[in-house]
Amino acid sequence: MADDVTNACDILKSASPDLLKHGNVVATGVGYKITNGSKTDTVSIICSVERKLPANQLSASDRVPETVNGIPTDVIQTGRIRALQARTDKHRPAPGGVSIGHTEITAGTLGCLVKRGSDVFILSNNHVLANSNAAERGDTILQPGPADGGRNPEDKIAELEDFVPVSFILPELPSDCQFASGVIAVLNAGCTAIGSRTRYRIVRPQADPNLVDAAIARPVNPADVSNDIVDIGQLNGSAQATLGMAIQKSGRTTSHTTGEIQQIDVTVNVQYGPGNVAQFSDQLLAGPMSQGGDSGSAVLDMDRRLVGLLFAGSDSTTIMNRIEHVFSALNVSL
User: Fold this and answer.
1) Calpha distance 279→270 (Å, rounded)
2) pTM assigned to the model
3) Cα dist. 201→171, 181, 185 in Å?
4) What's the CA angle centered on 313, arms 311 and 316, to 5 degrees?
5) Sheet strands side by side (includes 38-49)
6) Mind listing the pLDDT tens digit for each residue in 120-153?
7) Core vs surface per residue 60-78: b (16+ CB within 10 A) or e
8) For residue range 205-263, what is the model confidence (pLDDT) as tens digits?
9) Which residues of the chain have pLDDT under 50?
10) Nearest 5 degrees, angle CA 216-CA 297-CA 122?
11) Contacts of 119 (CB under 8 A, 6+ apart)
């Protein structure tokens, strides 16, 4: 086996320059051939390509030969290979998974690109791009976010286009209805008379549950954003999340993590700073695969299909909007 590897390496030294001239080939090396997703014992010359295409979509000159001087070849898709940057750095073009944010927040995550009609937009959370309802259309979006050194105007990447307002639970305030106040006073007096510790109070109705924490921003220059998601690659469509589904995300803080949909149809109260609580229904829950700053991350299944938008969590849980609710609320698609 060692002789096979040595022989393949010797042949690759002279073959590599020609192989790298093939369109789409970004790297060559020696490794074991992959067949039906499993590693074999066959030593091969491996050609890495940005995108693996059917042979009938390639010109004859761009097709990797089946063998090189008797050594079998294999083709794997790696995407474009680039010098690695921290997710908190400035990226142009900016892919999904990097730092982004409204000028008045700390930083969140650029989720992915979506379309409304023929226009392309950045998708993330309301609290990342729209400062939890406090922003206005046209506000500046920075990449990286302010907490990661983003400054206006040099790091401006987009302008806020639209967001779904988050409805917060209203505080329990006394009612100004005199009739109701009188009724409550009588009821409480009765409780006192019979020695009961129960007391009634009047509260204003709570806000309706939310479905999404989502917003979109229009890139200043479409060339400044990328369809790629760091460590994952390009999206392969969308799908409906199901209980037990294996998932992955790429976020500003915890990078690429994986998990599993542990609960569906979740109703959850989410804290948005002191005194602000919003209730969300029909959410997805996974285990500890995120931390602060990962908000806005696109959540995908293992086939790279978009299933959710990450927006909240704790030390032991991650909460996501269903992507179908996000698409519907913002009137966007992939």
Assistant:
1) 6
2) 0.74
3) 13, 9, 9
4) 150
5) 25-35, 38-49, 71-77, 67-68
6) 999 999 999 999 999 999 999 999 999 999 999 9
7) eeeebeeebeebebbbeee
8) 545 789 999 999 999 999 999 999 999 999 999 999 999 999 999 999 999 999 999 99
9) 173, 206
10) 25
11) 218
Rounded (5°) CA angle 24-25-30: 160
Backbone angles phi, psi at 45, to 5 degrees: -90, 120
Indicate the domain borders of the chain: 2-77, 94-167+209-327
If you count them, how many residues does the chain have?
Answer: 334
**How far, rounded to the nearest angstrom, does the alpha carbon of residue 111 sit from its chain's CA centroid?**
4
Q: Does the domain formed by 2-77 have CATH 1.20.58?
A: no
Reading across the β-sheet that carries 306-313, which strands appear in turn? Answer: 255-260, 246-251, 298-301, 306-313, 318-322, 277-286, 263-271
Question: How many Å is the Cα radius of gyration of the chain?
Answer: 26
CATH architecture of 94-167+209-327: Beta Barrel (2.40)
- What is the C-alpha separation between 283 and 266, in angstroms, rounded? 5
Separation of alpha carbons 293 and 105, rounded Å: 11
The residue type at 84: L
